[in-house]
Structure formats: structure tokens, C-alpha cells
Amino acid sequence: MKNIVIIATGGMIAGSGEAGRTTEYRAGTVAVADILKSVPQLGKLANIEMISLMSVDSNEMDEQKWLQLREVINQQAARDDVDGIVVTHGTDTIEETAYFLNLTVNTAKPVVLTGAMRPATATSADGPFNIYQAVALAADDQTYDCGVVCLFSSTIYSARDIAKINNYKIDAFSSPNDHAALGYMRDAEVFITSRPVSKHTIHSKFSQLEYSTLPKVGVAVYYAGAPAEVLERLGQDCDGLVVIGTGSGNYSQA
Question: How far apart are CA 142 and CA 240, in angstroms?
Fold first, then answer.
């Protein structure tokens, strides 16, 4: 069997609250190792190794935590006895973490991010099945050199083309701008129907670099009547600015 490393970072998949409820939970309060015990079928998919890296709400993710996660992924992927990696993560910022890792991890081995829309204490929690499929995906040869991917509700997404589009449904993700998903799963069976053509992981120039910090970039959203002062304030202590404009990046003369 393949050897898969699961790296836990927290999020709703490890959240707890009132038994049976999907709201008013605390993220990152349940050990992922305990969740794995509820999925005994994992032992038939792969040999599992567990790393509890951090236990945070994904809204607490920042650049330093990204760098820490990237380093651990690279270390594990460099091992000859590791075939793939699964990262459990909160859903609110999983697309940002996935995008960063897709450009900076230095491996062609499968790296799969997954999470949950229901806490572990909810009725019919979706986390255990997502982990089950994520492990199966990380252990499948088809996922090799696909870049970082995300697995939710039996759908396989490229890390570059995933967005959270719903705040409560378990099928909460989609690919924006009409990009197709990479494929889908039926239980543990993997169906890859397309592969990413954009540069990623070992093909990205960023994967060959070492980072201790990242440049600070401010992001300003333009809207009708938006004050220009926001750019001046952001620019005081930033290395760069991004303006999210209307249309094809338009904004006012001011």
C-alpha cells in the first residue's frame, strides 16, 4: 500500500459544538487523529502517518503559517517512503492556502487539501468522508504532477481554480470563471478528466526559492465613490498594492 502523511492544521473539520448542530462551533478543538478513528476503512487505502502541525481557525492563517506548512510538506515529500500528502484545513481560507502551496511546494507527489462544512460533532459530519476520499486521491497515481488539489464532496479541484461559493452547504466549492474541475470521485475511485496547464509546484519558479518572510502587499477593493486615501494609507507600510477594480480592473480617476 501507499504511504500517506496527513498534516492537520485545524478548521471546522476538527471543530466541535453542541451535538447534532452545524452552527455555533469552535474550530480546531477535536484531534484529527480521533476523526480518523471513525474511518476505519482508511487502513485499507494506505498506511497513514499523522502530523498535528497546528490547530487554528482558518481565518487565523497568515503568511508565516503558510511558510511553516510549506516547509513541512517539502520535508515529508522529500522522503522516499512517502507517496502523498493530505492537509486538513478550514474552508474559509483554504483557497488562499492552496493557491500559495500550488506555486511554492517543491514536489510532484500528490498534495491534497480537504476540510469540512460541518463540525465533527454535527449530525452526518462531512469531514470523515472527505478525509477518506482525500487519502484515496493522494494514493492514486493519476494525481501525480497535477499540482496541489482540493477535494470536497467527491469533486477534485485544482488549487489555482477553486472558490468557496456557499457558507453552509457541504457542496460549498466551485471553479470560478467557468474553469472545469479536474475530475471527480466515486467512493475511493478516482476519475481525472483534465489536468492543469498553468505552471505549478516543481514547474513554478517560486518552488525553487527559500523564504523566511514574504513581501507585504496591501489589497484595496474599488467601489463607486471609493476614497483614494485608502491607497495612501495602505502604501505607507506596504511593498506593493493590488487594486481590485470593476470590469476589467477599472477604477476612478481619483
Answer: 38
Sorted by where each starts, the structural domains of the chain and their CATH numbers stand as 2-206 (3.40.50.1170), 215-244 (no CATH)
pTM (2 d.p.): 0.88
Name every residue whose Cβ is closer than 8 Å to that of residue 33 and which is 6 or more positions away in sequence. Answer: 50, 52
Distance, C-alpha 230 to centroid of its chain: 30
Tens digits of residue pLDDT in 61-89:
999 999 999 999 999 999 999 999 999 99
163-164/173-174 β-pairing: antiparallel
DSSP E strand stretches across 82-129 = 84-88, 111-114
The C-alpha cell that represents 169 in the structure block: 452547504
CA 190 and chain centroid, separation: 19
- The H or E element spanning position 130 is helix 127-138
